[in-house]
Amino acid sequence: MLSRVLKVAAQQGVKSFSTSQQNNVKVVVCGASGGIGQPLSLLLKNSPLVSELSLYDIVHTPGVAADLSHIDTANADIVIIPAGVPRKPGMTRDDLFNTNASIVRDLAAGCAKACPKALIGIISNPVNSTVPIACETLAKAGVLDPKRVFGVSTLDVVRANAFIGEAAGVDPQQVNLPVIGGHSGVTIMPLLSQCKPAVNFSQDKIKALTERIQEAGTEVVKAKAGAGSATLSMAYAGARFAISLIRAMRGESNIIECAYVRSDVTEAKYFATPLILGKNGIEKNLGYGTLNAFEQELLANALPELKKNIQKGEDFVNKN
Length: 320
Description:
By secondary structure, the protein is of the alpha/beta class. The protein has two domains: 2-151, 3-Layer(aba) Sandwich (Rossmann fold), CATH 3.40.50; 154-308, Lactate dehydrogenase/glycoside hydrolase, family 4, C-terminal (L-2-Hydroxyisocaproate Dehydrogenase, Chain A, domain 2, Alpha-Beta Complex), CATH 3.90.110. Helices cover 44% and strands 17% of the residues. It has a six-stranded mixed sheet, with helices on both faces. Strands 9-10-11 form a three-stranded antiparallel sheet. The radius of gyration is 18 Å and the shape is globular. Residues 1-15 and 17-21 have low confidence and may be disordered. Residues 25-151 form the Lactate/malate dehydrogenase N-terminal domain. The active site is at 183 (proton acceptor). One of its GO terms (cellular component) is mitochondrion. Substrate binds at residues 87, 93, 125, 159.
């Protein structure tokens, strides 16, 4: 059933599923026919917390904003955007910029018209730049609320928990490791000193694990040998984040996820940290706590790259 509907979504724009529930939450997936969008939609379809799921996709990017404003995103509570082209071997996330920047800009413009109060989760890479693009676009439309826009960096946390759990001989589902900074290369900063349960590795092992977490996306791209990038793990992470947003919107307390958001925690305008989520998005930014010497070095290396990525996103909107 879902695969049939996704084909329809690709051809006609959108398809919605509805169920009758209390505390209705409407979720829209923009890019539902893609490698991430399909399994993400499947996972959300199977969640009893989602009362209405609208799936949207388009082949060509021109006119996306106008098209999106005509479909059933009105009054959407949550919009998740995995739309865009995937990485291929030899490509960096930054190589995706020219195509995906336009897609995110146009979808954000559509959201500004159709559902300006929605919580927006952006998966489209390069996240370090596409989140500033979305925020600048919403700001130009006069509807920006920085507490409602998120770069979904949850995959970095999922990977970190898996790799650390494996290395420590601990169930990864029991590992809670904050990952801060951004969502590419050196901007990804796993804070092993704050891992729960606590882990005890040599400095060489910490360095190796950190580098593996930072380059995990490239690891998948190489393993798929031209067949795509991380789709299943990203869909899992995207669904986890969307469901956390839903739980927070429904009034559950102490829902914490790391995400890349507009922030004053560092000198970078956007930065990923653990966040307490609430009914209106970010309830509290928990910051990054105390860093050890190795982590302080990671931060020093990350900030110049992060600021460059952010400026690139903002410049794109201002020049286009």
